[in-house]
Amino acid sequence: MRQLALNLGERSYNIYIEQGLIDNASLIESFCEGDNVLILSNEVVAPLYIDSLARSLPNKKIHQFLLTDGEAFKNIESFTAVIDYLINHGFRRNDTLIALGGGVVGDLGGFVAASYQRGMGFIQFPTTVLAQVDSSVGGKTAVNHPLGKNMIGAFYQPKAVFIDTNTLKSLPEKEYYSGFAEIVKYAILGSLPIKEILFNKLAEIRNKDINVLAEIIYHSCAKKAEVVSEDEKEKGSRALLNLGHTFGHAIERLTEYKTYLHGEAVSIGTLMAFNLSLAKGLIKAEVVEQYRELLLALKLPDKVNLPISSEQMLEAMKLDKKNLTNKYRLVLPKNDHCILVEEDKLELIEQSIVKQLK
User: Fold this and answer.
1) What digits encode the pLDDT tens for the residues 115-138?
2) If 0-12 CB within 10 Å is exposed, 13-18 middle and 19+ buried, where does residue 279 land?
3) 234: annotated active-site residue
């Protein structure tokens, strides 16, 4: 078993990575306080794994709540429905909520756990590439608002993160590759182990080689844990983890979360960020092309194939949570790392967007 620690003082916890982890009853149950456990999942993931997870908790009263699959259901209505269930079934703050699924389930479940009686037990059990390498680690929880993504939420750390790499075998191709947009992000942020795997082991990635996947998940979690341990509440360096996300979130919002998976929108947004870096002389054209080809090799989109305008993008980006002034606060690649900039030259941003529009 691979194991990582995310060091946050009294809120520290471990990330466990192993094949078949869902059947490790003694380990999982050791983190479940109280008598009741709510397994929050969705209608796609639950039939595959919820029974196995429930069997790993023989000494707990197991409850299940299933969400409709999709980013469009990461909303305040779903949040309220789960809260209603907890109240109606007499859950206490020392009981536990386990989020079994992808980023939507984990984000929403974490926000429910943070809010219910001001904080109940919470465990992440991510089942997608994106959730395993990114959203399950670091304590960001949220739901979407019609005017912006993740606008309502809290920082709330889980008691543990369990990553069973076997769950990736059942992922549809589109969902599988979507998560690699976040892994590419870590390479751009300077993780040499991840960069080497991405550029040298594409065949293994396409074949879902479990050993290679475990290695890249480990290094991704290690990179994120390093950043989060230094800046838990995103007041500084953690904002760099949002590379491509300001553009990507705008794409998601403008398409009503129905057209692109999160990683697909981030892929396009990352190239928009590269375009702006190139225009500002922060990076060489060959580096931009190198990563564009990598994203395409990972079956990720490089352009928005819908009638969205740069004006609409700029308007949607105004509501990004990172903006602290009237300027656009953006993460841009620079050589072998990334920087935060406060950009007010709208023509440069607009030109960077237009290159990736239909």
Assistant:
1) 999 999 999 999 999 999 999 999
2) middle
3) yes
